[in-house]
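For the sake of transparency, this paper describes our internal protein records without simplification. Such a record has a labelled line for the sequence and another for the backbone structure tokens. Nothing more is needed to write down the fold, since each code stands for a local backbone conformation. For reference, a complete record is included directly beneath this paragraph.
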Amino acid sequence: MIDKIQIKKILIVLPNWIGDAVMSVPAISQIRERFPSARITIIGLSHISELFYEGPYVDEIRVYKKDFPSNKGGLRGIWGMGGLTATGLSLRSEKFDMVLLLPNSFRSALLVHLAGIPLRCGYNRDARGLLLNRPVRFTPQIKKLHQVEYYLHLARSIEENRRDRNVPPIDFSPPISPSNKGGNRGIWGMGALLFLSQEEIQQAKETLGKNQITPEDLLIGINPGAAYGSSKRWYPERFSQVAAALDKKYHAKIILFGGPGERDIAEEIVRTSGPSLLNMAGQTTIRGLMALLSQCRLLIASDSGPMHIAAALGVPVVAIFGSTDPALTTPIGTGHVVIRKTVPCSPCFRRECPTDLMCMDLIQVEDVLGGVEKILGR
């Protein structure tokens, strides 16, 4: 067993995907709860670290850069050996007592090994077991866990020193509406998952107001993209039909979300939908996205980062799944509606479909509208 009194400084290395980072929050909350007197520092990419601003789980947020290849073909920054070594040595000087390694990559394990952190806990996969002195076995049972459970098991294994214990199921308690501080309470009994400041919420309301959207309007968000790949994206023309139907039936106001690389998808939906839509794709920071999502009555989305952010804020989601498995990444909490068609090749987890994208093609506009109706009916 770990002597909690001796653990004064903890480092947590964050995942590199937005959705994974959101699903790691319960595990980080567990570390906070079990080591209440320790100073907890998280480190991750800039847009990932932003998710944790205003939250109570950590004492310090650190950022590293993931640089693209240079013109000479070498890698720079954290993932180049020079940057990796420099970051490791910088962390070494801070004398952390323990690290929780959430990513599965070899390089992330090498980073904390170079940092010389005495207790290094992570899953023993991708040939990195020798770099960890508290490895947790990656068993077939672990592979089948929901991502929230996957990270929670890792966090629990630090203290309990059991490498392949049976994993209890997680209670997916219903999310409760955002509190005045912007968070939602009650998910897994751990308190809020994501937090917003009053200033951020006010800025979101002002943005909506400038676009003739008032608090009395039924505001529905649509996130048509997915950073992982096209196999997770439903068709833009069907999102357009959904938007038109929502305008006609509910007089809903529609706001489109997406990253900079998804502007074309959003613009196509705007061109073909008919009603006027507020297109915010590529125009928000992560914090701005969170604030705007918090003002939505519900979100229609693919299996994506914004889907998980909305759920963590207590916003119900109509989640459209194709190539991925809801059993592993279904939205946090209950009250959501998952739309998925059973086909022989799904889940395949491919970035791009090599055939006809049948898993998405079979999902009709009426299926999504039915999901919206279920949520609004509650």
About this structure: Residues 44 and 63 are 5 Å apart (CA to CA).
